[in-house]
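Intended use. Records like the one below are meant for learning the mapping from a protein sequence to its folded structure. Do not use them to infer anything beyond what is encoded.
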Amino acid sequence: MLQLNIHEAKTHLSRYLPALEQGETILLCKRNVPIAEIRPLPKMPIQPRPLGLASDKGVELPPEFF
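Structure written out for the chain above:
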């Protein structure tokens, strides 16, 4: 678990994003007193989305379309 003061987190947040992606938790502190935690979100499965008005027609676009 990483422990950062708010100023450090605001200034260098992009440095700590890779650690979050690896599952690390960040503890945010104000004057060295913990006030919040930042935790990575669980991986969400990617599901094909239906096309708006044609969603009930069974129309799907291949991934190559996007």
